Amino acid sequence: MRVGLVSSEGPAGPTRQLARIAAELSARGHDVRVYERRDGTGPPAVANVPAGYRVERLAAAPSARAPAYVPEFSRRLVESWAHGWTPDVVHGHFWIGGLAAASAAGSNGIPVAQTFYSLGAAELRQIGQGADGVGQRIALERALGRAIDLAVAQSEEEVGELTRMGIPRADVAVVPTGVDTERFTPHGESEQREGRRPRILSVGGLAPWHGQDDMIRALRLVGDAELVIVGGPPRAGLAAHAEARRLRDLARRTGVDGQVRMVGAVPNDRMPGWYRSADVVACVPRYSPVGQVPLEAMACGVPVIGYAVGGIADTVVDEVTGRLVPPGDVQGLGTALRRLLRDDTGRFAFRHAAVDRVRCRYTWDRTAAALERLYERLLVRRRRPSPAPASA
């Protein structure tokens, strides 16, 4: 099967998730090409990746308004597919990549699947006005939903969001993200810890809706534990970062500033060591459609305490691989953390159950196999003749 994966994200090549999907589909014998936009003009920048797929970065002039370059990006896709290689199925990634993919594929009669990763309407409702630039997305995402053949959701909560957009439930399929279980494993080096204080790890960008402020407030109920926040700008930029300053000020006012440590951005290859260094990983964003962090933590054998939203609610099994807390329940969060940090036997059981769950349900091979079945379903649907009109 010839598969075209289209995304506008990733200024220096495919995102890790998109690259892994392409590699896994290639390993299953499919002819895969990844298409991304690059600024400028001229011919495509083409590279054959050792993992077996091809990357084409198509020129489209930059614009202050992101959707403005979609027509040119789409036209470049059509041009590329007119020269000997046309995909059997196209899979759009992110909303702008999906708009370009649906437009180009529609003119060629190619079936289209779409993964949104996040939705403007959901961000606006769950994050509020802090959700950056979602206003223009909402109408365009609704239009995209009408143009595609199949929406690929990454959590059960996202299924509801997509159907509220008007996509029929029969045209929505859940395919969770995968985890690299060879990299994210309980065995290996871990980041050093000072003293015997238990460690709570929080992973994610520094923004008000990521929940680090709830974690800091919850520390008052936890006792003597260290909260390590990974994410945001590089360490050198933390001093000037507005959200980092707000969190430090909150920690001082809450009386836990000696328990909070921010380390900034961390390279992906060091993340397994950070997970393994923790006694528990806390995932408490207001909006989490994917649930990548809890899966990576669980693959490393670390229990997760998180808010019961989106991908977190799907991946963490309450009282089996960790604990789920109602969103915004800071007191419940602190109580759950305190109890789990004092329960060595419970953490031991959660660790082993977490690793088993990831290896049974969330490997990249399973993700690729599920996508393969969906693509085949689209092809069968397109080949199936339309029913003859009823006779008068």
UniProtKB/TrEMBL annotation:
Transmembrane segments: none annotated. Keywords: Glycosyltransferase, Transferase. Gene3D superfamilies: Glycogen Phosphorylase B (3.40.50.2000). The keyword Transcription does not apply. Residues 13-183 form the Glycosyltransferase subfamily 4-like N-terminal domain. The keyword Nucleotidyltransferase does not apply. One of its GO terms (molecular function) is transferase activity. It comes from the Bacteria. This is Glycosyl transferase.
